[in-house]
Amino acid sequence: PPSGVPRRRSPPSAMGRGLTLLLLPLALLAAPAQAEGGTAAEEVKIEVLHLPEACSPKSKKGDLLNAHYDGFLASDGSKFYCSRTQNDGHPKWFVLGVGQVIKGLDIAMMNMCPGEKRKVIIPPSLAYGQQGYAQAKIPPNATLIFEIELYAVNKGPRSVEAFNQIDKDSDKKLSELEISQYLKEEFARDGKKRHPSVHDEILADIFKKNDHDGDGFISAKEYNVYQHDEL
């Protein structure tokens, strides 16, 4: 792992790169699938390691967070994940509370402020359950420990402003053409090289996940993640 503290990535301007998180399929975010099931008796244990004097804003569901986190197996303390060794050491961007990370992390990072550090213990039912996660070498029924440092809390992509930005003709629904154009603009903004097929795959994935009534449009209600509060 690289020594020293990695550079912090600046928050996205005018929604910016963060908006892309709304649209990219989970596989491209490298976010694992949530575990099924879970028992009410098990909960996330949170230890605050550092709390800044100025603790604002506190994170809530739908916020766009920027954080570094290390993951360890509680059984032997071995590290299975380190965000500082991936993506050139940049902190991770993700939307809180919508399943882009395991449910235990969604819970563990609520009401957290920029600069705060936490150590959290996540039971198997809120992590990878009985299946485990072979790709990350997480065995079945594994209790996980994460050390988290939160850098930024931003307004998330599922906002009225974001919807209106994509809805060019202001008809309160997003067409395939509008989202296709939005994707092109986002891809041009971040400057990364992608195979042309990626655009089509993401576009199809967006409609598969969001066009619940299958009418070829994503309505404001279908777009709004807050209509589906799972926590």
Automatic annotation (TrEMBL):
One function term, GO molecular function aspect: calcium ion binding
One GO cellular component, as annotated: endoplasmic reticulum
Reactions performed catalytically: [protein]-peptidylproline (omega=180) = [protein]-peptidylproline (omega=0)
Cited InterPro entries: EF-hand-dom_pair, EF_Hand_1_Ca_BS, EF_hand_dom, PPIase_dom_sf, PPIase_FKBP, PPIase_FKBP_dom
Domain PPIase FKBP-type: from-to ranges: 62-154
Signal peptide annotation: 1-35
Name of the protein this chain belongs to: peptidylprolyl isomerase
Keywords per UniProt: Calcium, Endoplasmic reticulum, Glycoprotein, Isomerase, Metal-binding, Repeat, Rotamase, Signal
Residue ranges constituting the EF-hand domain according to the UniProt record: 154-189, 198-231
EC number, as in UniProt: 5.2.1.8
PROSITE patterns: EF_HAND_1, EF_HAND_2, FKBP_PPIASE
A Pfam family assignment: EF-hand_5
